[in-house]
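Hi C.,

You asked whether I'd gotten around to modeling the 636-residue construct. I have! Everything is below, sequence then structure, no commentary in between.
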Amino acid sequence: MFSLRRLLASHARSISACNRLQSGAAAAVVAERKMVVEGDQKASASGIYEAPFARARLGPFFQAEPQLGNQFTEDVTLQKYLKRHLPPKVYQEIYPDLERFGHRVATDLYELHRDCEKNPPTLETFDSWGKRVDRIVTCPAWKKLKAVSAEEGLIAIAYERKQQQWSRVYQMAKLYLFTSSSGLYSCPLAMTDGAAKSIEVIGRQEPLEGAYQRLTSRDPSKFWTSGQWMTERRGGSDVAGGTETLAVKQDDGTYKLYGYKWFSSATDSDMSLTLARPVDKDGQYKEGTGGLSMFYLEVRDSNGDLNNIEVQRLKDKLGTRQLPTAELLLDGVTALKVSPDGRGVASIANMLTLTRLHNSISAASAMRRILNLARDYSLKRSCFGIQIKDHPLHIKNLANMEIEARGALLLSLEISRLLGLDDCQKISPLEKDVFRLLTPVAKLYTAKQAMAVTSEGLECFGGMGYLEDTGLPQILRDAQVLPIWEGTTNVLSLDVLRAVSKTKGGALLSLQADMTERLRPLLQSAPIQKSAEKVQQGLQQLLDFAKKNPKHLELASRDFAFSIGRLYIGLLLLEQANWTEATAEDSLAANRWCQKDLIPIVQEANNNNYAKDVSDGEFRLVYDGYPAPVIQKSRL
């Protein structure tokens, strides 16, 4: 009863404060009306009559908008990760650039970002004289951001390798700062990075050497971006069953591509990598994954004309409206086969790895941006007589969002570190297994985090978070692409299982060895010991489930991937909290993360939710009331 009385008393004080505010507002309205009446009386005395409210009366109050500060110096998680992992010389070398760029993404680049949203791309199919031109028109800000991307070395940093294996972490840190102020130019950069990595791996012979030099250039006049044309009408992630594009070999060794690419992002790029099925001399081709090869093409010929490409239409999307995404008809596109026959999917895997990492970085960036704006706004918005920063309930919401954002960033940066080792051929077999396993986990998990955090973040602004001209809803709309592009959550969950099965369970054993070794010092640290023990126990329970329930893994794959993501983020947050320069806030974040259900797969198994009869019941539940009978062809 004592707690209830305190709550009621507090509520009464809030109502009293609200009443005082309302009384003050009412007095202001009375004063304003008096001014209107006095003005009307003066106008009437002069022979000019104005009716009350003939002119808008806006009142004396205007809500201050949130402001962005330096996005690098205000991000303690990013700075600590870099300082903790990078050699001191490397950290000191890159710090000034990140500090400078952190200011730039909050100022001139942020303005370009907003311009891209206000001026989305359009398609001019014909010119004034009826000639088909298929010209994609983008705004000046979009073109400027391409130049900025080159000048800032957002691709080049990773391939110059001036910081050796740390170059990739440096690049991703800079992209993390850039993404939320990029006007979605981060999307073509993701595919450009993937194309550069793919070319580096398959070999830089001409004409790929020339393309590689352009993709990694710092000169805006030479810099190219790349597309990635895989999605067709019959399938998105199912490229084996959905790819219909055919490749006909020519006498000069090139190929002509014929097909329909249903979803091509960054359609104004200079080149693309794509998949197609080579046709033999009898017009026959092979179905399935074994029939796919990877091809390199340039979007325009030497005269600047499209390479037998017709832009059918631009996509009308929920978000990412700044980005030109189109349906393309390939009607004899000149292309070069750059993979062995039937090795197209394997050859383009490097691009998928990079774009999935970029997806994770974008998710972490979106969370940080909405949080930074909400944090600043809490100092400017008052509610019930006090600033909203002084409402513990509001701060609790922000703290929960902060913990999610920190975890997402640490996971993304850790994968960047492993990629840097791979770039420089310094990655161990164990690390390579962990890298392969964590990449799809990070992509799917951070994307889900971003959706939850950006949605919650909009609530921090009340009604202003729902107004398009504030730029805030754009953050949520753009975040929705993250769990869809480059594989939905379910598709990525199955890819996690593929990483386990292809290594015959070796990837899981490598994960166990990696985490067990890194947990040892954490188990000796009093402030985080219980949390470290929970991660250790959760890891063992996850492995036990996988070993005992192989037939349930496909149905449980989503929970399986989520469990890996939560456990590994727990490890990373605990490591940050155990650093010699860590603060009490680092321990709070780590311990709070570990209080959540780290292994949802175990709880679902304990509830018997992976049993066949439960799955059958779920199918009947979904189609209960559907007008026609539906028979399930279950894979269980």
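If it helps when you're writing up: The two ends are 53 Å apart (CA to CA).

Thanks,
B.
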